[in-house]
């Protein structure tokens, strides 16, 4: 008999979690203004808000923390971290920052000017925020297929070369760089193929435009290339990652995802001019160049995490868990962005709550229902997160309206996946009893979904 699949780790430390009653959750959600970001984590049973900084570190990472050198300048831990990034990415210049958006802030402060245009395959919201904050425009050039949630194609995060070329042609001399996000979080944790990475970079370079890779989940993207793209099945994750980075000019990294740490980030590049420019912003915003907002011990843990998470078994365990949850949802007929993404399942709320108009935010409504059902905290990646158009101030209803069930790395077991699927099925079975959605009572001008206040209609 063939042995079944199992995790490539065993558990050495546990953290208790607690169930609550529906009455408690009704009260807590009302106090949180129907925004799950405002809940206390103790009011949550299974937390699927994000995979960002929520993973478990390994024994080797904890051991490495004891070796942290906390010197202000020239710390040994920085050089260990730098050597690891250089070896895994092929980039010479490395600037640590405290997280991904800080890397964006430092690099974009040097590169983005008012009036610029920055194309990308669905910029993450902080990325878009850092572009729009500088009075520049972020233009999405993801393939149209990404919008059709039921279409099953292997690389749904890809860049549309036609859309990209149109932007490059129409804005010559005004595009400081292009952002290539791997995996493409916003459209469902969908990967970008190596062929598309190569062709995107060739096209940008033809127009003299450099490419910055938003690399938060680069290792998961490499896993999908290995398992889905012809010619890569026998390459290691590390070899594939090196090739991905070889085509681009720089990377910004949220190490809270594929770096397996709770906090951290960095910029890496071979462009000396960008390094020199970014350095000048790192010091006032993040700190001196050999710590950039991170502790020495955190740099040590990150160096180990990057090495661990570019091994096949680690990624196989993680992505198979996401696919396990997807199979359960298939059994129950619950629609989500197909195929399952690397870090999450994106439930297609527009299809689940098809009686709720866009103006009443179906995905946010479903997020609330799932929390009330079982204390499971998911995250809206939809019309709320899309913010308003900076010029017209209209809601942006053009994209998908998803509820993201985001799986932290090495945290939950497949029993938890069963609970999540069952809770969602219960909500799905009574979906037509949900007559109305939610209305915004207060919102911030930018990145509103973190702090928005809502009332249930
Ligand atoms: N880029 C991508 C693709 C991301 O998903 C994120 C964060 C960032 C950049 C910013 O990094 O959080 O370290 O500042 N995504 C988290 C999420 C928050 O839940 O998807 P950060």
Write a compact overview of the structure shown:
The chain has helices at 22-31, 59-65, 76-89, 100-111, 125-132, 161-170, 194-206, 218-228, 237-247, 272-285, 296-308, 312-332, 349-352, 362-374, 414-429, and strands at residues 46-47, 93-97, 117-120, 137-140, 178-181, 211-214, 250-254, 265-269, 344-348, 376-377, 379-381, 402-406, 438-442, 453-456. The protein has 457 residues and is α/β, with parallel strands linked by helices.
Describe it for me?
It is a single chain. This protein has 457 residues and is of the alpha/beta class. The chain has two domains: 22-51 and 318-456, Aspartate Aminotransferase, domain 1 (Alpha-Beta Complex); 59-308, Type I PLP-dependent aspartate aminotransferase-like (Major domain) (Aspartate Aminotransferase, domain 2, 3-Layer(aba) Sandwich). Helices cover 39% and strands 12% of the residues. The chain contains 15 helices and 14 strands. A five-stranded mixed beta sheet has the order 2-8-7-6-5, sandwiched between helices. The chain has a three-stranded antiparallel beta sheet with strand order 9-12-11. The protein has a two-stranded parallel ribbon with strand order 1-10. Strand 3 (117-120), helix 5 and strand 4 (137-140) form a beta-alpha-beta unit. Helix 8 crosses helix 9. The protein is globular and about 60 Å long. The chain starts with 21 loop residues before the first helix and ends with a strand. The relative contact order is 0.16. The mean pLDDT is 97. The site of ligand F0G has 15 residues, from helix 4 and helix 5.
